[in-house]
Specification:
With 79 residues, the protein is of the alpha+beta class. The protein has a 4-stranded mixed β-sheet.
């Protein structure tokens, strides 16, 4: 599973990345967490509010920071 945090690198983006990694550890899902900083690439994906969380190419959250348990539930539902 490929998880991407999209955002310019602000504190909120860093927090979302941290929570995504915690959710991966909590669920035990085999996944990578990457951070996309390039705003051009972010906009090309149709993301207009950051931070955004993308799982396997699907935008699952945008403009907010879901709690770890919510991210874990999303990951479980998508595996």
């Amino acid at each position: 599973m490929k998880i991407e945090v999209c955002g310019a690198g602000c504190n909120k983006c860093a927090e979302l990345e941290k929570r995504a990694k915690e959710a991966v550890a909590l669920t035990g899902i085999d996944a990578t967490v990457d951070h996309v900083y390039d705003m051009g690439k972010i906009i090309e994906r149709g993301i207009f509010m950051t931070p955004a969380l993308v799982v396997d190419g699907k935008i699952v959250a945008g403009g907010r920071i879901p709690v770890v348990e919510e991210i874990a539930a999303l990951l479980q539902a998508m595996k």
